[in-house]
Amino acid sequence: MNSTVRFSWKEVLITAFHDFMQEQILPTKKNYLGETQSTILQEGYLSLKPSSSLKIDAGKKTLGWGKGYAWNPVAFMDRPKDPDDPELSREGYYMVSADYIKSFQGPLKTFAFTPVLFPDYPHINSTYGTVNKMNYAAKLYFLLYDTDIDLIFFTGGSKSTRYGIDFSRNITTNLEIHGEFAWINNYTKKYIDSSGNMLQKVYDAKSYLLGLRYLTEKDATYILEYYRNATGFSPSEMRDYFSFINTGYNQYLASGNTTLLNKASSLTAGNYGKPNPMRDYLYLRVSQKEPFDILYLTPAITFMTNISDKSTSISPELVYTGITNLELRLKSIFSCRGRKQRFR
Hints:
single chain; 344 residues; mainly beta; 17-stranded antiparallel β-sheet; 2 helices; disordered N terminus
C-alpha cells in the first residue's frame, strides 16, 4: 500500500507492507486460510519543508545512501539490498533526518548536508545493533566538476564507528562510472572452526565497490560491478563452517542428537546466512528495452559470481508494464556450482 498526502507546507508519506510470516518467527493472527500473518510498516514518515533549501523527516524510512546498484557498503543505516532483486523495496528504520541544500555558481554546483539521529532501543530499531544507544550520522554531498560525491560518517555505540565515501560521474552521455569505499573501525567478526569452537576477530574492515553503467543506442543497458566485502568470510572459514554442519548432520543420523545442528543454526542467521557472506563478488546485468519493437516488454539477464569459489547464479527475467498500475515479471534463478560448492 502506498499513499502520499501533500499540504502547502508539509508532506506525509506512508508506505505499508503486508507480509505472511511463520508463527515461530512472529506470532500474530491467522487469516482465513489458517496462515499466520502480520502487517509491517515498511516506510512511514512526516516530512516538513520550512524553506526551499531545508527539509526535515521524522519516522520510518530508507535513506538509500550509496551509488552502487547491487550492493552499497556505505549504506550503514539501511537494510542490505537483495542482489538478486536490487530494486525491491526494503523496510526502513525509525530516525530523524534533515536535508539542507545550497546551489552555487562555479565548479561546485551543489552542496547538501544531511544529519541523522538514529535511536536503537528495545522497542525501536532493536534488530539493528546493541540496544539502548542513540546513534548519530551525517552525509556531506558535493556536485563538484560534474561528479557526485558523498562523505559519510556514523557513530554512537550500536555498531562501531564507520566512515564512507562514494562517487558517480558520467564519462559520456551513455557511460557512467561509480564507486564506494567504507571503513568500519574495530569490526568484530564471529566465526567457527571445523570442530565447533567459537572464534572472534577484531579488525578495521575496508570494503569497496567499483562499477559502471552503459546504455547503447538501441536501449540496451549493461551494469557491471565488483564488490569487495571486507566483513565477509574467507574460503577456509566457509569450509570450516560447512564441515561443522556435516559433522552435526552425521551425529544426527547416528544418534538423533541435534546439539551440533542447533549450534550451527544459531550462527547462520545474520552471519553465515546473510546474502553474499564471502569477500569477492562480480555482478553483470544486461537488459534490453522493447526488443523487436514489442512495447512495454523488457527482457534481462543477471550474472553474479563468487570469485573465491567460482560459484555463479544466472537470473533470466521478463518484465511487462503494459497494464496500468501493474507490473508482470517472470524470473528464474539458476545456480552453477564451483569447486563442489553451491552459490553463496
